[in-house]
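Note to self: keep these together.
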Amino acid sequence: MKVLFYIISLLLVQTLSANESFAPSSECKSCHPNIYKEFQSSMHENATIHKDPIHAAVWNKHPLNTKKQKYTCAKCHTPAADNLEAMLGKGTNGLPDINNETHNQAVSCAYCHRIESIKPGKQSNTNIISKQEKHYFGNIKDAITSKYHSTSSENVNFNNGNACVGCHSHKQNKAELNVCSTNLDNEMDGANCVSCHMPKVAGSVSTERETKQHAFHGFPGTHTHQDMLAKYIDLELLKNIDNFEVSVNNKSSHALLLHPLRVGQLRVTLERDGKKEKLKTEVFVRVIGKDGKPTPPWIADTVIKDTMIKDNEKRVVRYDTALKKGDKVHMTLGYFLVKPKAAKKFALDKDPVANKFYTLKSETVTIQ
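Structure:
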């Protein structure tokens, strides 16, 4: 019985972590030009430390980099690496190498489309990858037969949009603190990630099978294509006698911002008689740390502060200013990818990506 258990355990470990060979994303370009162009702009293509300055800055200070030289982030940031086992802790050298092309593939087309199933885990989930190379999963039921690969539409995770939760469900650290999550307790089961982050857009899915639309592969998020997410946020103004209120309605199925480095802001400007006055800025943030002080995610053991707008929450902010006819109220909801204080600690205070204020939604209301 013990021998059988050992064999089953060994096979499971091999299934979860064995190095696989993935076709490079560039092979997809000739037949899927629209999708390939979109993918090039996405964070799936740019998730590596060589392409994402924020991820690189955090990794530069991570103890696994400075002490053990193991890049466990590869599980989701460079899962197509040809030495993934070493990066995750097996072998002698597991650091990213800019000269290794499989490290630069980031989250490749072939990798995502070979996710066979998802193995739930306490610290994070794990993608189980199909052993059949160039056999890809999708959700087009009448997909044609291609001379380059075979396609299956029978995978439940692609049909219900849950193929994303292998990486985007949750991440706990060693202190069992939830660093960030969308689906920690399976609360999003039944929700479809692709409906928001892979909306249908004009253009053919391939050159071999002409279609009017295809699923957008730029993956709108905090880094890129933010305008495609604006429809899931409503900004509303309510005029009272002595004050007014601005409500932020988050219609998505997860918190407004997920990563603990992010910080959201509601900026309101009152325009009256040709003059503009900036009113208070409301901050939405989730701070994690230890002993009452903010720390990097691998040190934190508690949530120090959490004012982040939650899923399906309508947050109301009051401004103690009486409005009159003709006033214009400019409302902007946006965010920084890195909190200003954290940017300095991670040597990102001069990085244009980390220090840019990204607009998610803007509205102007004229008082009648």
